[in-house]
Amino acid sequence: MTPCQRWSRRPPHGHRVSVAPLRRAVDYSAALVYLDEHASYEKTGRITSPSIGNIELLLSVLGSPQNDFRVIHVTGTNGKGSTSQIITKLLMAHGVKVGTYSSPHLEDVRERIQVDGEIIGQHDFADSVAAIANAEGIAAIRPSYFEIMTAAAFRWFSDAAVDVAVIEVGMLGRWDATNVVQPDVSVITNIALDHMEFAGPTLAHIATEKAGIIKQGAVAIIGESNEDLWPIFRAEPHEEMLFVNEQFEVVDNHLALGGRALHIRTQRGDYVDLFLPLHGWHQGDNAAVAIAAVEAFFGSALSHEVVTEGFANVVMPGRFEVVGHQPLVILDGAHNPAGADVCASVFFDDFDPHGRRILIVGALGGRDISDTLSALKVDEFDVVICCTAPSPRARQGREIATVAEQMGCTNVSSADSVERACDMALADAGSDDAILVAGSLYVVGAARTHLRRVLP
Predict the structure, then answer these.
(1) Average pLDDT, stretch 17-40?
(2) Do residues 281 and 361 both lie within one domain?
(3) Domains in the chain, number
């Protein structure tokens, strides 16, 4: 059966167990309190025993809503957020109803759950979380924050009768709560060292964990170009497997005003004169993966009109997002060395600011901050302001500042909040200067909220 045939044979909705919502979770604020009560990894950064057992029990109580729609499942060390958004917009341009589940959020937890690009409303969010609260009692388990969010997303996608859901893995893949779906297409964007406290120490270990989302009957799209890792992916059961630079490739990728000009070729189509309104050469790679994934889903090439429309509607808040001019203010959620290296390359090479270069940086614990700072080229910034991210797992700004000084930075200061760091940078910056906010999506989210209030 082809992916296109599978898509056209949408299954009927599951038989859901009817449960009355808990009184404490019927409004939005109570739903947020319930979620916070279950935030363990979000507060400690620790996972005691990786398992999908809890989420399987929750979904069983709910009537297995994850089986009510088709799925494109996306993982990768970097780029999975952008790739998921590009896939979503290509599917929407094709005329299907699309659910999108992503993490983490920048400013509002509801950002994680969207249908056709619109975030879930407060009432629907509270209703879905209330259903999970009831399922928790019936299943006699204590789910995590991410398990609750994942189950809530699946439930709402079922209620909203989406045709397909683009599901972004939270961490790694094999034991991730999202890995209860049976995907039509499994996507791996790339492999780099990250989450070393849970996997590693080699790229092969990371690849093995991410390969866990490849399932029997699914088409696998592999954006990782390191051929030494390909046997790991091939070892997983699959229907078909497409590799970058073999079945799909970026033929041309160059800087254009406001994004990238692209030429992408796949085994099914040749897509020329494309414009993607995202910054950075790496977004060309993400776009190629996205096109290959959507082609695999439909089992055919895409029309140039669909690709052009889909690309035109792509927006990625917090991923090399320009939020201010004079001074130039850029937000990027790069939080590991591989992502930070790309971030620095785009900032220094593509934007090439003429004035002083000011870095606002914050980070969570659990990673070697010196590796991320080195990849960001911290010593090439004229001013470095280190801040404490708004998370219980945050590394203190003054600790980051000490590391930056040890790396040769001379104009270094620290701030106890992201907001204070932004105010310090704006007060110091001239109209020709450029401010980059990076190091953590938690930092970028807080900065985005604050900067939208204070910038003209």
Answers:
(1) 71
(2) no
(3) 2
| Separation of alpha carbons 202 and 145, rounded Å | 29
Domain that holds residue 205: 3-312
> What b-and-e string marks burial along 263-290, b requiring 16 or more CB atoms within 10 Å of the CB?
bbbbebbebeebebbbbbbbbbbbbbbb
Q: What is the pLDDT of residue 367?
A: 77
Domain's final residue, options 312, 335, 362: 312
Edge-first strand order for the sheet with 113-115 is: 118-119, 113-115, 98-101, 164-168, 70-75, 185-188, 219-222, 240-243
For the residues 387-415, what does the mean pLDDT come to?
96
Residues 284 and 365 in one domain: no
Across the chain, mean pLDDT equals 91
What distance in Å separates the CA atoms of residue 120 and residue 139, rounded to the nearest whole number? 26
Q: How far apart are CA 247 and CA 410, in angstroms?
A: 48
Domain end marker among 312, 330, 358:
312
What's the rounded mean pLDDT across residues 36-46?
70
How many whole angstroms separate alpha carbon 361 and alpha carbon 439?
Answer: 5
Residues 273 and 218 in one domain: yes
Q: How far apart are CA 118 and CA 123, in angstroms?
A: 14
Same domain, 125 and 155: yes
pLDDT at residue number 199? 62
Per-residue exposure over 114-145, b if at least 16 CB sit within 10 Å of its own CB, e if not: bbeeebbeeebbbbbbbbbbbbbeebeeebbb
Cβ neighbours of residue 116 closer than 8 Å, sequence gap 6 or more: 92, 97, 98
Same domain, 325 and 308: no
Nearest to 256 by CA among 225, 228, 280, 220: 280
Return the CA Rg of the chain: 22
User: pLDDT, tens digit, for every residue of 217-233?
Assistant: 999 999 999 999 999 99
pLDDT of residue 45: 55
> Are 105 and 112 spatial neighbours (Cβ–Cβ below 8 Å)?
yes
- Express each pLDDT in 125-174 by its tens digit: 999 999 999 999 999 999 999 999 999 999 999 999 999 999 999 988 99
**Token code pair at residue 427:** 């007060």
Asked if 63 contacts 132 with a C-beta cutoff of 8 angstroms, the reply is: no
The token duo for 285 is 């790679």
pLDDT of residue 41: 61
CA distances (Å), origin 168, targets 27, 73, 102, 310, 362: 27, 6, 5, 19, 24
Q: Residue 448 half-sphere exposure, CB side, CA atoms within 13 Å?
A: 21
The model carries a pTM of: 0.92
